Sequence to fold (327 residues):
Amino acid sequence: MQNFPSVFESIKDLNKGHIDGLLKLAGKFKGFAHDWQGLPIPFIKRPIIATSFLENSTRTKHSFAIAIKNLGATYIDFNADTSSLKKGESLEETLHTLHCQGVDLCIIRTNISQEMAQFKEKPPVRIINGGDGTHQHPTQALLDLFTMMEIGLDLEGKTISIIGDTAHSRVCHSLLDLLPQFGAKIILCGPTECLPSEEEMKSYPGVVLSTDVDEAISQSDLLYLLRIQKERHKGREVNYYETYPEKYGVSVERLERLGKKIPVFHPGPANVGVEISKDLMLSPFYFGYEQVHNSIFMRMAIIQAVLQNTDKKLGIQFAGRTIKDLA
Ligand code: CP
Fold:
């Protein structure tokens, strides 16, 4: 894949060729899933890849770890809590240090939106964004697209309702940048407090806002549910939480009442009984586990693509220096 970014922060960093290339490569990796012995050894030197999760994760962190191992790379689980970040060292200095130790790629999750943007001009190391605040979760959106296509949804002209806390969801922002490129129409649905502002919506022409979940579901070919992200509400009272399951929660009963037999996606973690009922998660309509399974193959593809980046000098250049260079 030509000119793949060394710092993959946002869906906006990719062109259509990159996205098509990733979808193809992830499909290829999935073909090897039951026979990793058959996987061509992609690396001459085993790269060293670190995950640095400064915010909690189950799915993203572990699927990256498994993807790294499947590719035959060396995995470092960088533990932020026991690192010198706790002594006040900056993230940039931490990344320089890891690179000087031989780390080729770092997968970072942070609760600070756009924290990785500062590294694009002069990357301390190759970086993949594993989710940053409310900003982007690009690898999640790509694995979602891969799964939608795999289950047979041609997105051209189809309507996808993203239901839940869309304003605070980094997954939603990445989906908004990605799915319309494949012809999907998007409805964002939820209580007013959960919807993006009119100002923000100027960046997403054609995307419709709705507070009427039954109406949104009726128009949809696929539902993408999101949890209420209380931890990102910055002190604001979440006063719709109690009534959310009845007003906006999606269940088999609601789908049946509306006569809809459509796939339901969720990036996880789900608050079962709030935005999604237990019976829906156990029903044939729910594809959340396919998303989790496919995350391995898409993340293998993304890792491979980012490692191919050679167009920028990464990190501190120190090799071969002596005191003569100071004269
Ligand atoms: N979908 C997702 O990002 O889940 P985790 O927070 O468990 O990684």
